[in-house]
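Action item from last meeting closed. Structure (144 res):
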């Protein structure tokens, strides 16, 4: 006979699924946020080129594209870890041998803090030239 009643085991499995879905939402948020950061950085660079007619210098390490890619990779890793953890907890519940593990929480916290610190230089950077845009000449209409 099972060590825990069937209804309690069912609740534990449902809680495990809710936890997995929370990690899934988090990973989707990370991937979406990373995509938005990377694409917005490209947009700002193109806007700067259009306004100043010059290619702005791009730092090869600290730029929005790299931060965005890092967030997307971290989001993909998050869902892989969440699926692994869900399966691990599933079998622990079935064996009535659940042991909480805080390691994944600390890993996720550390990576988010590190990526947050990497985003600070992007927020503080003010290297957009203040050159005014090229004046637009009024176009004359030829009514002939």
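Sequence:
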């Amino acid at each position: 006979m099972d060590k825990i009643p069937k209804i309690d085991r069912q609740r534990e499995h449902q809680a495990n699924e809710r936890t997995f879905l929370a990690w899934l939402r988090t990973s989707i948020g990370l991937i979406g946020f990373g995509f938005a950061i990377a694409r917005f950085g490209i947009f700002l660079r193109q806007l700067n080129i259009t306004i100043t007619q010059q290619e702005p210098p791009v730092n090869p390490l600290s730029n929005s594209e790299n931060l965005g890619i890092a967030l997307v990779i971290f989001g993909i890793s998050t869902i892989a870890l969440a699926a692994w953890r869900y399966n691990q907890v599933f079998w622990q519940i079935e064996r009535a041998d659940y042991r909480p593990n805080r390691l994944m929480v600390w890993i996720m916290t550390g990576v988010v803090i590190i990526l947050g610190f990497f985003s600070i230089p992007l927020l503080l950077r003010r290297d957009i030239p203040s050159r005014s845009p090229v004046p637009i000449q009024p176009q004359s209409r030829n009514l002939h």
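Note appended to the action item: Residues 60 and 121 are 13 Å apart (CA to CA).
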